[in-house]
Design brief:
alpha/beta
């Protein structure tokens, strides 16, 4: 942890612009370009979004965040759950840091949600999985643009190897009407374009059908937090709607080895 208790941005300048003005302009451009879903979907209680560089997955993530704008006045807290890419982790980890910083400004860690999470034995307090983790960080600038620069706080939750029931129990304790749940995951990795389309369509159908047992780490890098969310959505009777399904070959990359991205709305406010 930084001596000041601030977790500095780890991927600014690589996954998204490090300049605040350029970053705000890019996010706003992608939000404006996002196509409204058909049929119209109301403001979601949660979203499932990808986490690659903005040039690749930003347009897909924007299709979900564009819906979140309608909850701006109702949301005071955000739980952001995603996988651990760099640090082997069993269970889940919340940060010791009190603030997450992006080029657009600080995001305070929610003390109330942090206290609730720490009550669960499967949740550790550890900055190491958070220090270089991009899956949570890249969601923050989108949230800062759709919710505003202040008036809300977040709980970043890195999810490692954990069974769906355990993840569902923790998310259930954290997720109420004033809290937006953001689940961060990409889909298939490094398959040829046409094969990835088939693979990701199958995974998206499983997500919409809340068939968590049909989704593994080769289908979604955030399979562990995703399975927990889908189990909880089933328990709460929440629908999951597909908003956008594309891959890096559709946005900014070559088509010989692509990464899949999906955006989904979970429930309604």
């Amino acid at each position: 942890m930084n001596a000041t208790g601030v977790r500095p941005p780890a991927v600014a300048g690589s996954f998204y612009p490090a300049d605040a003005q350029a970053l705000a302009a890019l996010v706003d451009e992608q939000l404006t370009a996002a196509q409204p879903p058909t049929p119209a979907t109301g403001p979601p209680a949660g979203v499932i979004v990808p986490h690659a560089g903005y040039v690749y997955s930003g347009p897909i993530a924007a299709s979900a965040y564009a819906l979140v704008r309608d909850r701006r006045r109702a949301v005071s807290r955000v739980v952001i759950a995603g996988p651990s890419h760099r640090i082997p982790l069993r269970g889940m980890a919340v940060p010791r840091s009190s603030t997450f910083l992006t080029p657009l400004g600080p995001v305070p860690v929610d003390e109330q949600l942090l206290a609730i999470a720490r009550e669960h034995p499967e949740v550790s307090v550890d900055d190491r999985p958070h220090a270089a983790e991009h899956s949570l960080e890249v969601q923050l600038p989108f949230l800062q643009r759709v919710l505003g620069p202040e008036g809300w706080s977040a709980l970043p939750l890195v999810v490692g190897h954990a069974d769906p029931a355990t993840v569902a129990t923790v998310l259930d304790a954290l997720w109420d009407d004033a809290t937006l749940l953001v689940l961060s995951t990409d889909l298939s990795h490094y398959e040829p374009y046409e094969r990835a389309q088939v693979h990701d369509a199958r995974t998206a159908a499983a997500v919409v059908g809340k068939d968590l047992h049909a989704i593994g780490p080769y289908d979604a890098c955030g399979a562990y937090p995703l399975a927990g969310l889908l189990e909880l959505a089933g328990q709460r009777g929440l629908d999951v709607a597909l908003l956008d399904l594309r891959n890096s070959g559709d946005t900014a990359g070559p088509r010989d080895r692509v990464v899949g991205y999906g955006a989904f709305a979970v429930g309604s406010s």
